[in-house]
């Protein structure tokens, strides 16, 4: 019989406890993009580790976005969003889209206007353009549910992960 390690004393749930627990959870890294409704509006985007596949039929994804985020006003009104799966070679891109106040679409970020006028990032492992079908209140965030309408899974490389407060790649 092997000894069971002693459990630490449980703590009351707080925002810090939740952050500490989820530092133990490795998550894939995505960038969500959108453009405001008026023609020629500046694009917005942010790094997300909350991306989930929700259903295959119809093809639905979800992600969380903070209502205090600079991207939220556009995401709150956007009919379509871009979902980009980052490769382990894109740590700097992930950091740029996570940085407050950064001009996320300025060089060296490579991107183009894709289907439904959604900004599509260059060099990602895979991307989708999705039609937003729901925005669900969840504390200081909204959970956005969106249906994939077009995409490309053909990028090369391995996924970028986020764990223990840093970007990482997979190990063999």
TrEMBL record:
<dbReference type="GO" id="GO:0010181">
    <property type="term" value="F:FMN binding"/>
</dbReference>
<dbReference type="GO" id="GO:0006208">
    <property type="term" value="P:pyrimidine nucleobase catabolic process"/>
</dbReference>
<protein>
    <submittedName>
        <fullName>Flavin reductase family protein</fullName>
    </submittedName>
</protein>
<keyword id="KW-0560">Oxidoreductase</keyword>
<dbReference type="InterPro" id="IPR002563">
    <property type="entry name" value="Flavin_Rdtase-like_dom"/>
</dbReference>
<dbReference type="InterPro" id="IPR012349">
    <property type="entry name" value="Split_barrel_FMN-bd"/>
</dbReference>
<dbReference type="GO" id="GO:0042602">
    <property type="term" value="F:riboflavin reductase (NADPH) activity"/>
</dbReference>
<feature type="domain" description="Flavin reductase like">
    <location>
        <begin position="22"/>
        <end position="169"/>
    </location>
</feature>
<dbReference type="InterPro" id="IPR050268">
    <property type="entry name" value="NADH-dep_flavin_reductase"/>
</dbReference>
<dbReference type="Pfam" id="PF01613">
    <property type="entry name" value="Flavin_Reduct"/>
</dbReference>
């Amino acid at each position: 019989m092997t000894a069971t390690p002693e459990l630490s004393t449980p703590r009351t749930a707080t925002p810090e406890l939740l952050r500490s627990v989820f530092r133990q959870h490795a998550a894939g890294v995505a960038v969500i993009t959108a453009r405001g409704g008026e023609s020629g509006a500046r694009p917005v985007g942010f790094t997300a580790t909350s991306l989930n596949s929700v259903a295959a039929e119809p093809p639905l994804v979800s992600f969380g976005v903070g209502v205090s985020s600079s991207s939220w006003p556009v995401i709150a009104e956007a009919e379509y969003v871009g979902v980009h799966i980052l490769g382990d070679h894109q740590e700097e891109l992930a950091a740029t889209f996570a940085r407050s106040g950064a001009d996320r679409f300025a060089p060296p970020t490579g991107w183009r206007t894709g289907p439904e006028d959604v900004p599509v990032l260059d060099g990602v492992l895979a991307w989708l353009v999705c039609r937003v079908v729901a925005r669900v209140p969840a504390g200081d965030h909204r959970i956005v549910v969106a249906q994939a309408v077009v995409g490309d899974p053909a990028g090369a490389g391995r996924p970028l992960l986020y764990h223990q407060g840093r970007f990482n790649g997979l190990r063999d």
